[in-house]
Amino acid sequence: MKTSDYDYPLPDEKIAYRPLDERQNSKLMLLTREDRGIEHRRFYELPELLRRGDLLIFNNTKVIPARLYGKKKSGSRIEILLLEKLDERIWKCLARGPKNNMELEFEGGPTANLINAGEGQWQIKFSENIEDYLDRIGNMPLPPYIKREPDESDKATYQTVYAQKEGAVAAPTAGLHFTPGLIEEIEQRGIETGYVTLHVGVGTFMPVKTENISAHIMHSEYIEVPERTCGVINKAKEEGRRVIAVGTTVVRTLESSVDGAGKVMPASGTTELFITPGFEFKAVDAVITNFHLPRSTLLMLVSAFAGREFILSAYRQAIEKDYRFLSYGDAMFIC
Description:
Blueprint: E1 27-32, E2 37-42, H1 46-49, E3 55-59, E4 61-63, E5 67-71, E6 77-85, E7 90-95, E8 103-105, E9 111-118, E10 121-126, H2 131-137, H3 154-157, E11 165-168, H4 180-188, E12 192-198, E13 221-225, H5 227-238, E14 243-246, H6 248-255, E15 267-271, E16 286-290, H7 297-306, H8 308-320, E17 331-334
Parallel strand pairs: 1-17, 3-12, 3-14, 4-11, 14-16
Antiparallel strand pairs: 1-2, 5-6, 6-7, 7-10, 8-9, 9-10, 12-13, 13-15, 16-17
Helix pairs in contact: 7-8
């Protein structure tokens, strides 16, 4: 399989740079795999598209305000993106123009040193624990294709309403369309809900650079599948009820946690699962997802689930009908 098979023209004006005023008002494209049907709806109509007994699984990761701006000794500004907390003061990070042992100051906060960890990896060691500082001064790590500075409003809009476990540096964007009222309506209709965790990493935005897909090295992300969630999923599967993943992160988490007998098992660790066409889905029956970047692992995942030609045809329709793409954009429900 070639990466170029998953390319498509995405005009800049189709990328959503800001969210809608009301999350649930986004467009929702309904894709039916059995008959290759496509309908155009609104996300607030989702409850009527679900069936009593369906099980929705959400990713409850919480995005940390991981983008910081420090000052070098020269007085010039440097941008730091925190990736992973290693201990109370040390984080993995990305930096623009880093140098080993570079000293930095942060306004109203700690000092720090950049550390070359080898193999292109960088760490930053702060003079103190910075979690309280992050909440006050940190900016949300908007994806690189959103070409604007993050502002205070992004701390609410680039976060799901059910976010609980801190650790992500990108939002599980399919969940951004849900409101507390919409979730309540779904549950009142007899639809079950459950939660897993996948801390979305910056690798989710990385394009596949190898022409041969099999040569791509998938990024690693932390996952957690609680025992209770396994129980409700396995019961739903036994009873022939649909397990619906809210987002590709949930798909990867659940499919990484299936044993040889097809049961979803408790998990706590990392996954490097790369889902491409030909993959056999054992846990997930339907997917709610956004529209993804060309040549991305996420586009390959949804193509594996619904078929490449069907997905690319749906993307062409989405562009023609003025859907909004990527993190702050519209959604599709593939069933």
